[in-house]
Amino acid sequence: MTYLLGISAYYHDSAAVIIKDGEIIAAAQEERFTRIKQDSEFPINAVNYCLKEANIIPEDIDGVVYYEKPFVKFERILETAMAYAPFSLKSFINAMPVWLNKKLFIPREIDKNFDKRLKCPIYFTTHHESHCASAFYPSPFEEAAILCLDGVGEWDTTTWAIGKGNKIEIKEKIEFPHSLGLLYSAFTGFLGFKVNSGEYKVMGLAPYGEPIYKDLILEKLVDVKEDGSFWLNQDYFGYCTTDYMFNKKFEELFNRAARKPETALSQNDMDIAASLQVVTEEIILKLANYVHLKTGLKNLCLAGGCALNCVSNGNLLEKSPFENIWVQPAAGDAGGALGAALTIYYNAFDNHRFVNEKDSQKGSLLGPKYNDEEIITTLNKFNAKYTKYEKEEDVCKIIARYIADGKSIGHFAGRMEYGPRALGNRSILADSRNREMQKNLNLAIKKRESFRPFAPSCLEEDVEKFFDIKKGKNSPYMLLTRPISNNIKTELTEEEKNYKGIDKLKAYRSTLPAITHVNYSARIQTVSKDVNPRYWNIINEFKRLTDCSVIVNTSFNIRGEPIVNTPENAYKCFMFTDLDVLVLENYILLKEDQDKIDGIEQYQSQFKLD
Amino acid sequence: MCSIMPIAIAFLLYKYSYKDIATYVLFSFFTIALLSIIIPPIGFYIYKQSSKIGKIIGKYVAIVALFFVYICTVLPTGILMKIVKRDRLRLKMPTVESYWQKYENKNSDYEYQF
What we know:
The complex is a heterodimer of chains A (610) and B (114). Chain A is 35% helix and 18% strand. Chain A is of the alpha/beta class and 610 residues long. In chain A, the strands form four sheets. Chain A has a nine-stranded mixed sheet, with helices on both faces. Chain B is 67% helix and 2% strand. The longest helix of chain B is centred in the middle third of the chain and has 44 residues, at 40-83.
C-alpha cells in the first residue's frame, strides 16, 4: 500500500489530503479546525485528521507532497522586485522575512510539524501541475483537455494540458503578472470586497448591473487574442509592488475612487461587476475554444480559483464545443494538496489509473464525521434540549416537514465537505418556495449582504423540470449556474420590470423565489441518491410533501466564519443566529426549547468580515 | 547563548577598564541564574521578555539589513536589466500573435524545490 500526503500551505487555504493507492481517503482545509477563514498556516490539524482517518502514523507515510516549487516562486518574487526597482523596495522588505524564515525551508517546516517522525521523501510539484492533476485524475474521463486558471502559482497563471490515462502533459502557459485571477481580484478589491475571498460576491453582484465598461476594460486593461490568451496592462495594477491590487490610474480610468468596504453599493459598482463578469466569461470561452481546437477532445476538466466562477462554467457548458465538463470542487489552492499527491502517485510513480464513471471525488465528502458519543458530549456540555431518533428515515421526514413549514434548518450529518461549497452535510436548508427566505437567510441568519443569492439543491432526476440543463449534465458540486426553466418563471409587472440595482430583489421571478437570482439564474447542486442518500432522502421527502424537489442550500456558517466542522461549532452557530432547528445526525434541537446563552456579540465579532 | 553573552560583555568591559560595570553585570547575571535555578518561573519570565525584546530588535535589524540587500543587489540588477532591455515580466505589450508560451515539462524534478 502506498500512502501519500498532499499539503498546500503558506499562501491561503491551507489543506491536507491523504491518498491510499490513488484512492482519496481524507481531505480537509485547515480553516475548518482553526476557525480562521482561509488559514494559511501549516495544516497540522488537517494532517492529523487525515492520518487518523487513514488509521496510520507519520512513520507509515510513503511520501509527503508539497503543492508548489518554493524556489521557483521565490525567483518570481525577486524578478518582480528587480523589474520594478526602485519602486519595489517596500514590497521586497515586507515579503522577505516570511520567505527567509519559512517559505524557503519547507522541508524543515514539514519535518518540524511532524516532530521529525517522517521517514519518507518530500516531493514538490509545480502549482499548476497540482491544479491540473486535481482536475483530471478524480474526473470521470479517461482522456480530457485540462484548463487551469488561477491567480498565480510560481510563474504560471494560466495553463492548458492533456490528460490521458495516468499521465498529464501541460502544453502551454501564460505567466505572471498576466493573470485572469488577479484581474478579477483587482476588481474585487476596487469594489470594496476582500481579495481572495470576495470574488464570488462580485460574481453575485454582476447580474444587478449592465456591462457598460466591457469595452473600456478590453481596450485599456486587458488585451485578448482570438485564442483567448491575454496580456494585462500593468500601468493600471498595483499587485506587483504594493499591497493594493490596483493603482491610482485604475481609479482614474473609472473616474471614481474605490468603494470603501461595508458602504452602500451603487449602480456603478454593479455595472463594473457586470462588465468584469462579461469580460471574464468571454476570455474563458475563447480559451476553451482554443484548447478544444488544439486537442480535439470532447471532455474538459477545470481547476484553479477561476474555475469556481460557476457563471462562466455554465456559459462554457452551453457555448463551448466540449461535450462534458468536470470541475474540481476544491478548485482553489486547497485542491492543490489533492493534485500534488495524485501527481506523484500517477505521473511520478506511473501507477495505473482506474476511471470511475461518476468520478473519484466521493461527492467531495472527505472531511471528518462525528459519532453519537461526540455529539452527546457537546449537547450535554451546553445543557441542550434535544430529541434523538433511531431511524434516519424519520429524521429526514421531520426535516422535510420543518422546511415545508418555513423553518430554517442547520443540518450537520456525515463527513464534512472538501472545498468551499457546503453540499448538504454542513448546510443550512430552507424552503425555496418561500418569498421571504432570501432576505431572512441573508440578514437574520447568515448576517451578510442582502444582494447575495442562494443556491438550490435539486434531486438529480428532476433537474430538468426546474432548470435549463440537459439530462445527464449534472452539477453535483454546485459549480454550474444555469437559467431556471421557463415553466417556473412568473410574469413581472411593468413596475417590476423597471426595477434597477438592489431593487430588483423586490420582484419575485419564479415559483422558487428564494433560489432565483435577479437574472433568472441559479447555481445548481444536483443531488444523487448514490452519493449522498441522506440528503437525497430529505429532498425526496420534501418533494412528497410539496411536489417540489428543490430546497435552499447554503453553507452552515455566518459571514466571515469558516463552515462548521464539529458539533460544537454547529451548536454555537445555531444558538447565535436565528436558525429554527438544528439537526446533528439523528439528534434534533428546536430553538424554542433551548435556554438562551450569552455571548452573541462576542461570537460574531471573532470572525473578521470577508 | 544567553549564558555566554553576559560573560562576554563583562569580559569586554573588564578589558576596556570598565571594571565596576563588569562586576555589576556579572553579579546580576549570576544572581538571575541562581534565582532561575531555585525558582524556574523567574528564569522563564526573563527568557520570555528578552525573547520579545530580541524579536522587536530583530524586526528592525531585518528591515535595515534588507534595505541594504535591496540597495546593493536588487536595485543595480534591476537597473542593469532595464539597460539591457530584459523584460521577463512582459511589461511592454509584446507584438505577438498569441500570448501563449510553450510549457517545459520537467517530470523528473519532483524531489527538488526548483
